Amino acid sequence: MDELETDLDERRKRAVSEGWLGEIEGIDRTLQCSREKRADALRLTRITRQVNLGMPTVAASRQPESGWIATAPTAVAIQPTVLFAEIGVSGQF
Q1: Rounded distance, CA 28 to CA 85, Å?
Q2: pLDDT tens-digit profile of 6-23?
Q3: 31 burial level (CB within 10 Å; 0-12, 13-18, 19+)
Q4: What is the pLDDT of residues 72-87, one digit of tens each?
């Protein structure tokens, strides 16, 4: 930022010596915005505080038992006799 402001100051001096009024106005506006941005950054640096939220943990009652293995849900077996009993067909298939 310092280098940019130094360069803008030098460009402004040249614009003044050459009589470039529009250039002077543009450089002044750029310098103003640059300085405001720097002031905002410094202000935010001073007021920003980090908060330690800690590491999340799993409650003891929710931890799996030792030897417990997670598996996919098992399909439920349906007996054909139960399905066909509703329409009057009996016997095992």
Answers
A1: 91
A2: 999 999 999 999 999 999
A3: middle
A4: 555 555 555 544 555 5
* Structure token digits, residue 56: 């999340």
Buried b (16+ CB within 10 A) or exposed e, 45-79: eeeeeeeeeeeeeeeeeeeeeeeeeeeeeeeeeee
Instruction: Give the whole-angstrom CA distance, residue 13 versus residue 20.
Output: 10
Report residue 57's pLDDT band, with 50, 70 and 90 as the boundaries: confident
The boundaries of the domain holding residue 13 are 2-47
The model's pTM is: 0.47
Residue 78 lies in a domain: no
Phi, psi of 86, deg, nearest 5: -70, -25
The reply to whether 22 falls in a domain is yes
